[in-house]
Amino acid sequence: MTVNATATNSAALPVTRREVWSWAMYDFANSGYTTVVITAIFNAFFVSVIAGGADWATLLWTTVVAISYVIVMIVGPVLGAWADRRAAKKRVLALATVGCVLTTLALAPVAAQGDAWLIAACVLFIASNVFYSLGENFTAAFLPELATSEHIARVSAWGWSLGYVGGLVTLGVCLWWVLSQQAAGAKAIDYIPWTLVITAVVYALASIPTFLFLRERAVPRASVAEDDAGHVMRGIATKLARSMRELRQYPDLRRFFWAGLAYQAGLAVVITLASVYAEQALGFKMADTIKLLLVVNVSAAIGAFLFGYVQDRIGHKPTLAITLLMWIATVVIAYVWHTQTGFWVAANLAGLCLGASQSGGRALVGILSPRQQVAEFYGLWGLVVRLAGVIGPLLYGTVTWATAGNHRLALLITGGMFVIGLVLLARVDVGAGERAAGRASA
């Protein structure tokens, strides 16, 4: 494994395989959260039990998801700029990890109260998702320090692939727990909250290698006076405006952010509402949904791993274009073949391109960003992803609420987001963008 010669540390430390593995283990650790809480179990439980299956339940779920992402949109770029100045990416990553683990654990007993503690459940979920999202931002910011531009897509894909393995492990344990409790005659409100405990424990344990072996290569670029909380809070608007102005100097990175906003809105719908769609529109039971998503995680791991090598061979833009075409095909299949069998087919096709489109986007941001501002621009990428997480699910939830539960129409609108993303991606010149980032780094 070769070190990126343009790393921000002038005396760059050599990158070892153990360090790359420890970085990828964070994807293993946090994937259980997004799989169990956002995609597979808690979201459907929230809609059907905590929100009582009301007409507004799906809209409420998408609203609390949107609120959490709005918070990350504001905080993420500011923390990114602060971490760049203070060489503190690992420190912030540790705080985000502890925060997500603790709030997920706290959510379990609250969820067990059902609709009686609806507001508390909303608040704790928002907090846990904010911490999770910040952790996702900061682990991505290490990527350009660990690989050269020729190998960044491959290393990113290793992380995503290992992440899906982590999701499989956590979801597999949760499936065992759900099936055993169902066999004993327990009710969902008694055993589903314990899946949150399982998720938090796996997150905490699996992230340990990251903090043992991953090294911070950046060097501080700020005075202690700039480090106080008051200075940071006063500078929120200023720093965000500065980041946006800096982005104008890299037009292809800016164009890719617009493309990412579109297709990530579609991805956000899939990630946050897959099990809700399966349950509400197709009549899946919880155990059936978990089994489906276990298989989809295998497809996603395979897709992320293989497309990482494809991306290094044929280029970032063509690979992303292929995955977006696959996403459009997925939506068409699910819309036309409106049965549980059709959903199985569409879901596994989605799995193949899910990791590839996410990993490819993360790698491309690293390619198009100057090294001295990588955490800051990954913070902006996090803003784009979270804004997409607001737009996509809220649009879906609004459509289902306004049409008395027409999930098929909402799904069709989701397909349009991928079409828009593909059109905008065509305007990105990766070569020119990489050269511009290289000149700035030099």
Overview of the structural elements:
- With 442 residues, the chain is mostly helical.
- The chain has one domain (17-222, 234-441): MFS general substrate transporter like domains (Growth Hormone, Chain: A).
- Helix content is 81%, strand content 0%.
- It contains 18 helices and no strands.
- It has helices spanning 17-40, 42-50, 57-86, 89-111, 118-141, 143-146, 152-183, 188-206, 208-213, 229-234, 236-247, 251-282, 286-314, 316-336, 340-368, 374-402, 407-425, 430-441.
- Helix 1 crosses helix 7, helix 3 (57-86) runs antiparallel to helix 16 (374-402) and helix 7 runs antiparallel to helix 8 (188-206).
- It is globular, with a radius of gyration of 21 Å.
- It starts with 16 loop residues before the first helix and ends with a helix.
Question: Mind sketching the topology for me?
Answer:
Elements: H1 17-40, H2 42-50, H3 57-86, H4 89-111, H5 118-141, H6 143-146, H7 152-183, H8 188-206, H9 208-213, H10 229-234, H11 236-247, H12 251-282, H13 286-314, H14 316-336, H15 340-368, H16 374-402, H17 407-425, H18 430-441
Helix pairs in contact: 1-5, 1-7, 1-8, 1-12, 2-3, 3-5, 3-11, 3-16, 4-5, 4-8, 5-16, 7-8, 7-13, 7-15, 12-15, 12-16, 12-17, 13-14, 13-15, 14-15, 14-17, 16-17
